[in-house]
Task: structure prediction
Amino acid sequence: MFNISFFLNGEEVNTSVPSNLNTLSFIRNHLNLTGTKEGCSEGDCGACTIVIGKVRNEKVRYVAVNSCLIPAIRLHGKHLVTIEGLGSPDNLHPIQQALLDYHGIQCGYCTPGVVMSLFGLFLNNKRPTENDIHNALEGNLCRCTGYESIKKAAIFIANRFKNYPNKLLPSYFTEINKKLLSFNKRILWKQDINETYNNYNIPKSLKELFTSWDDTSKYESCKIINGGTDLMVDINIKKNLYNKFIDISEIEEINFIRRKNHSTLIGAGTTFSEILENCIIKLKLPIIISTILQIGSQQIRNIATIGGNIGNASPVADLTTVLIALDAKLILKSKSGLRKVNLSDFYLSYKKILLRTNEIIFAIEIPIKKTLTSFEKGAKRKAVDIASVNSAICLELKNRTITNARIALGGVAPFPVLAVKASSYLKGKIITKDTTKKVSSILNAEIKPISDLRGSKEFRTLLVRNQITRHFLKLFPELYA
Result:
């Protein structure tokens, strides 16, 4: 058991939780707050959405997250806001009232998650656009109401409170934020870590992390958890249990984005949402922005980290495919120092990676060059879906001649791969329709997809051909005029 202290809506809570318990189960079964609903337990439906406030750089930042994907231990030192903290049947919160007035509720099962997603949006965006509202709600399923009614309610709130955003905050918020800032300064993390060392470890620095690893070899099923959005699904759905966790989500040294010479460095602990908000990425690497917007939902992007996504080694990881095309490098760190490897060389086989014992992904280094880039994803839905095949292309040109090319693919091998033969073929070629046809045929010979639940090998081969055509259509529309 792990002793935790946090704020629940307007009150301070001190309790203990086991290491494998998720926040959704904790809220419903231990706190007896049943407004937060359990739907899928894997981050797909949004019914369990809550809002969590965390102190960072002397400020409290709030985000909407799926409570089924958050270990309850992570509530330590945070502010948890549930649907019960917004309104009551006799005194509805403005968001709840708007959903009622615009007929945005029927069975009501999904409504608490919808309310919390919108509350998280308005906390961080005082004047959201209609597109912002769509992004905030893309992770919330509603099978009976109809999204148009929900959208109208959200637009009404956005217009009604655009000049008075603080009126959407519960009365306890200002006081809790002050307490939370003070609260975090007095939390004795190191004492907590030592008390539970044999079960769940949350180091606050790289030094503490490497110290904690000294005895890790005693535990056969030790798991590193960063964002944890995939690992928690293993626990919730597959019932995989682990003897020991090392949770690196509180290590600020791996949460950064900065320029270095002609590259951009992204710390492994940086969340997808933080990447989306970064001006450097928006200006220099817009393909990363457009790709991340197709990964998961906003609730998931608020938790998931770039390092965790890469380390998870999914064969169809969208961002990994793009990063391979961009010729990204991984900076790995251990007690003995740093080493750098090509991301394209990082994967050895299915779910097997190049990390050594007691080593972590520290940062991702992405070169900044003048290139043409494109990403394609073959999936049934735009958001909250896994690709059957994805692909990315990065071209350097001089006039109309390709001076360098990198094509990366996901879903055609046990891990995302660089298409070496197809990329080599393009180098030195002039862009023509014949070029695109030839590179497609080379790719079809180079890849070796398999058949599974998301598509047959024939379907995947066809997707690759179609995606290559779409890449060139986007980058060189004049070829198809």
